[in-house]
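Structure ticket #2291
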Amino acid sequence: MRSMHPNPGSPSAGTARTHRYTSPGHAAARWFAQRVLLKPLVWSLIGVRVRGRENVDSLQAPFIVVANHSSHLDAPLIMGALPSRLTRHLAAGAAADYFFDVWWRKGLTALFFNAFPIERTGLRGRPNMAPELLADGVPLLLFPEGTRSSDGTIARFKAGAAALCLSAEVPCVPIALVGASEAMPRNRSWPVRGRPAVEVVIGEPIYAEKGESVRPLAQRIEARVRELYGNHT
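Resolution: structure written out below.
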């Protein structure tokens, strides 16, 4: 599968709408926020073990990261676990009705996660930026369940991420987060005490097969995340 971006791994200056997501200045500020502030804090509160980092050694942007969603720790864990060269411009899809409803929350998610708005019912962002971001070489982080799990179990994946992989001709990186729900349950705003153990399991990139349609690809992606999760519980 070829990338739709002419120079994978090196986002262009971007269109006017996507400039913030590709800006070197914003990327430098985000690196400081993620690597100097956020990661040390999260890693001090929970015991993090990362598996499979070698599976993305040769990966180049753009790509789409998908993971199960069970905690507000999920995005910080993924951003901290992946190599910094892959998270320099990684943009996390965030619920438009929550993370973009007030200026301070919008600003913080933009600073720490390069966040872009999506609707919980799919990828109909305000505006729908996912295809445009991929076209500008910006990798995406998406949670196909659409919302955090209330009990730690993995819900059925929506097909939006798989549809983007097909239309943009980019690979999908499956990640399983094990223990994040227990470390920071949905009704908590801070991790539980005692540095609970959490594993971030990174799988090999998944590429669409010739002639594969959206639903079979979405099913393969979901099955792989479930397999990674099940192998480490």
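Closing remark: The chain is about 40% helix and 15% strand.
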